[in-house]
Amino acid sequence: MFFSSKHPDRTVSTENGELLFFSGTSYLGMAVNADFQELVKEGIGVYGTNYGSSRTSNLRLSIFEQAESYLCAWTGSQASLTMSSGFLAGQLIAQWIRELAVNNYAVMYAPHTHPAVFSGLEQEKTQTFEEWIIEVRKAVSTSTQNLVLVCNSVDVLNAQVHDFHWLKEVSLDSNREIILIADDSHGIGVIGENGNGIFSQIPNLQNVKKLVLASMGKALAMPAGVVLGDSTVIDKLRKSTFYSGASPALPAYLYAFLKAKNIHQIELEKLKENIALFSSQITDLQLFDFTKAYPVFRTHQNDLYPYLLENKVFISSFPYPKPDSELITRVVLSSLHTKEDIEKLVRLLRQ
Questions:
Q1: Which of 302, 278, 304 has the alpha carbon at shortest distance from 291?
Q2: Do 210 and 296 have their domain in common?
Q3: Are the C-beta atoms of 38 and 45 separated by less than 8 Å?
Q4: Residue at 42 is within a domain
Q5: CA angle 205–75–196, rounded 5-degree value
Q6: 61 contacts 251 by C-beta, under 8 angstroms
Q7: Boundary-marking domain end, from 219, 249, 279
Q8: Are residues 195 and 275 in the same domain?
Q9: Are 303 and 213 found together in one domain?
Q10: Is residue 2 part of a domain?
Q11: Which end of the chain has less Cβ packing within 10 Å, N or C?
Q12: CATH (domain of 163)
């Protein structure tokens, strides 16, 4: 384990000196982006450092509705709400899942679903996402219950962006309501058209109600969470005591987020160029599992971590989700990396 006294960018300062940094979740480098930091400072000047009041108070800041309106337009969602973290947004959904279960909905969690959405109804399984889909199809054909499906949009551990077109077949096989809940924390800002995430890529089907939640703290570097869905569900969630009792997202950051649209797109284009460069140079090595246009590259050669560390390159490598779990070793690209950084990494991999 290493410690650093400041946030990593393309490098990280540790007790072992300066290392090239191919880890973390700041895919667009926004956490250290000077222009974005200036916008946050500007936002603090307008809204202060925090706003601790309930969103249901009789005095409301218009920035919340402005940000949520933009999130709808950007992602293609009918309605949205923001909270102070992705985890809190997940627990708001988890509370709703428990209510659905009481009303005779069957709940099925996909493997590797983030604990933020755990409701106590999840089961620990070792199946793949594809095996889970088969299980879902079987449940649709044999059960008389309405169904709640909970999953991630991206399996970031195995560098896999999920395709949701299988829902069309599931929908055709069922005349009952299906609610799909997808955690897009590692997708929003990176995947989809202009980085708008998974929501618009999930098919719109008559008997499928889709709900997407996400932490905005990864690619977008925002201490906030968002829930996207139809207005009926979002309105219901807003009436929850869990929502009304929680402090909202920091308005200064929502202000900066709205002002940073061009910055996001510039950094996304840089990230895409870095992914294309790295992908083109490592395909023949057969060291990594990865998805086209996604910045995470999983390897089962765990010895790469100490080898690269000896050569002043830091990659992600730790057991997950438990201390005694399998070691997960990955190379993570960001928009901050230079062509020279990537070429150095490729040289070391080829050695």
A1: 278
A2: no
A3: no
A4: no
A5: 120
A6: yes
A7: 249
A8: no
A9: no
A10: no
A11: N
A12: 3.40.640.10
Query: Is the domain of 24 the same as that of 60?
Result: no
Domain that holds residue 346: 11-34+262-350
Residues 6+ apart with CB under 8 A from 120: 98
Taking the C-alpha atoms of residue 321 and residue 126, their distance in angstroms, rounded to an integer, is 12
Average pLDDT of the residues in 173-192: 92
The answer to whether position 76 is within a domain reads yes
280, two tokens: 């083109």
For residue 173, pLDDT over 70 is answered with: no
The per-residue pLDDT for range 14-53, each reduced to its tens digit, is 887 899 999 999 999 999 999 999 999 999 999 999 998 8
Distance separating alpha carbons of residues 48 and 260, to the nearest angstrom = 19
Question: 82 lies in a domain?
Answer: yes
- Asked, as a colleague might, if the bond just before 321 is cis with ω within 30 of 0, I would say yes
Confidence check: pLDDT of 1 > 80: no
Q: Which residues of 125-134 are buried (b: 16+ CB within 10 A; e: fewer)?
A: eeeebeebbe
Are 202 and 70 part of one and the same domain? yes
Number of domains in the chain: 2
Strand order across the beta sheet in which 17-22 lies: 11-14, 17-22, 313-319, 327-332, 296-299, 288-289
Residues 182, 214 within the same domain:
yes
Q: Both 102 and 126 in a single domain?
A: yes
Bridge partners (DSSP) listed for residue 214: 226
pLDDT (tens digit per residue) in 279-317: 999 999 999 999 999 999 999 999 999 999 999 999 999
- The pLDDT value given to residue 157: 86
Mean pLDDT over each residue of the chain, to the nearest integer: 94
- The pLDDT value recorded for residue 225 is 98
Taking CA atoms, 241 is separated from 87, 189, 304, in Å, by 16, 30, 48
Percent of the residues in the chain that have a pLDDT greater than 70, as a whole number: 99
What's the CATH number where 285 sits?
3.90.1150.10
Do 28 and 57 reside in the same domain of the chain? Answer: no
- Look-up of token digits 């493997």: 111
pLDDT at 124: 77
- On whether the CB atoms of residues 250 and 51 are closer than 8 A, the answer is yes
Alpha carbons 283 and 276: distance in angstroms, whole number:
11
